[in-house]
Amino acid sequence: EEKKQLTLKVEELERKLESTSAQNVEFLQVIAKREESIHQCQLRLEEKSRECSSLARQLEMAIEDAKRQVEQARERAVSRERAAQSKMLDLETQLSRNKTELNQLHRSKEDAERRYESRLQDLRDRLEQSESTNRSMQNYVQFLKSSYDNVF
Q1: Region (Disordered) spans which residues (predicted)?
Q2: In terms of C-beta distances under 8 Å and separation of at least 24 residues, what long-range contacts does 25-32 make, across chains too?
Q3: pLDDT tens-digit profile of 132-148?
């Protein structure tokens, strides 16, 4: 009777151990997905940074072009200057929007990293607790085995 009960307890503990192992695998998959998400955010941030640099170069080129036109033809300066200023305003608006978007992506990335770190720490805590529980169960199984051996 005691042997059956001990055997049932051991089987139950083994099931719990398997369940905990399965949870650990799931947690590792969640971490991998989060890391991939962060990686994708970083790629998008780099792409937006390159785009912003390109727009800044375009803006600088437009400004230089406008200055040369003013020096070459004062008579036509008023109409060309208005066009250049309009173009500059559009580029500055676009640059401003891109900078704002870049800042938002940066904040989003930082938020994602903070959430990831928080979740990662939570998972680590859970994993540590799970491992502690596993050790406790193993110790209990050892105790049961030694008690069983001592009884017989």
Answers
A1: 74-117
A2: 27/123, 27/126, 27/127, 30/119, 30/123, 31/120, 31/123
A3: 999 999 999 999 999 99
